[in-house]
């Protein structure tokens, strides 16, 4: 059975996920998204994975959520508070959500993973560090290259060519 | 450990459902990115939970890689939002039609 901390985290995570999608203001929505990401970090702590949890807090709550907040601030104010959604699709979307939840939930509840429990000690994060620099080192280097490439690509995409050309003309 | 694998899996399924709802219903580009984030986090939670209960270090390692790649995806996605907003002065994806045949 789940304990109280788990239930509280589940309520926070799922509640703020719904709030992130349904709040009228995009700014409050992105703050609610921070709640979801923080709740997932809490689950990682419960799963004895403090390294992943802190990585999640540093990367998601620390940088991605702030990046999203800044992007929201660059958008016009009318658009931040306007809800853009298909009214016709709303009920279909809720139906789809319930079908996915019930189908997958029924599959998981019916499957054998219900009986899986473990008494093994948690993985030491030192082992993860050793794994990273020994077995997974090519993947680590590739990940660094991918991050560098994506950041460069994002900068190139978001560059304002019109302003630069105006300045040159002046 | 009092929490079982099935609990984490069910939370993950709930988050996946909410993310799919957001992707299906919302037309705001930024909100759709929120939904994608929620789905990615549900997947990460599942990976770490299975890595804990079928004891293996691979679960946490893969979750770390997944988080880093999701960060790259969000950076590119947000810059795409900025470019599209600059071109159309809107974040409604129904307006982004210039590639429609």
Write a structural description:
The complex is a heterodimer of chains A (170) and B (101). The relative contact order of chain A is 0.06. The N and C termini of chain A lie far apart (70 Å). Chain A is mostly helical. The model of chain A has no long low-confidence stretch (mean pLDDT 87). Chain A has two domains: 1-82, NADH-ubiquinone/plastoquinone oxidoreductase chain 6, subunit NuoJ (Four Helix Bundle (Hemerythrin (Met), subunit A)); 123-170. Chain A contains eight helices and no strands. Chain B has a single domain (5-89), classed as Orthogonal Bundle (Helix Hairpins). In chain B, helix 1 (5-25) packs antiparallel against helix 2 (29-53).
- The CATH homologous superfamily of the largest domain in chain A corresponds to NADH-ubiquinone/plastoquinone oxidoreductase chain 6, subunit NuoJ
Report how far the terminal alpha carbons of chain B are from each other: 56 Å
How many helical stretches of chain A? 8
H/E element order of chain A: HHHHHHHH
So what's the CATH class of chain B?
Answer: Mainly Alpha
From the N-terminal CA to the C-terminal CA of chain A, the straight-line distance is 70 Å
The major pleated sheet of chain A works out as: none
In short:
Chain A is mainly alpha-helical and 170 residues long. Helix content of chain A is 78%, strand content 0%. By secondary structure, chain B is mostly helical.
